[in-house]
Amino acid sequence: MVKRSKKAKTMRKVIKAIWIFNWFNSCGFAELIPLVGSRWDMERFGMIIVGTPRQADVLFIAGYQTLKSIKRAKKVYEQMAEPKVVIALGSCTMTGGMYWDSYNTIKRLDDYLPVTIYIPGCPPRPEAVFEACDKIFKHVKELE
Amino acid sequence: MIDQMEPAPKDTEYDLYFGPAHPGSGNFGVKLKIDGEIVTSARADPGYLHRGFEKLMEYRTPIQNAVLSDRICVLEPLNWNLVHAEAVDELMGIDVPERAKYIRVIMAELSRIQSHIIWYGVFSIGTGFDTGFKMAFGYRDYILDLFEMITGGRVYPAGYICPGGVRRDFPNGAADKILKVLDKMGEMIKLEELENPALDARARGVGTLKVKDAIRLGATGPVLRGSGMKTDVRKEEPYEVYDRLDFEVPVRSEMDAYARYMIGIEEMKQSIKIVKQALEELPEGEVIAPKFKRPRVKVKIPEGEVYVRNEAARGEAAIYMVSDGESKPYRCKIRGPDFLHMIPVLEYLLKGAQIADVPAIYWSLNICPADMDR
Amino acid sequence: MNPKEEREAQILEEIGSKFDVEGKIQRERRIWISLDNKDLIELCGWLKNQGFEHLSAISVTDWVKEGKFEVTYHLWSYKDKILLTLKTKIDRKKPVIESVTSIWKENAQIHERELHELFGVKFKGNSDLSPLFLEDWHAPPPFRKDFDWRKYVREEHYDKENAREVVYYD
Question: What's the rounded Cα separation, in Å, for the pair B279 and B268?
Answer without folding.
Answer: 17
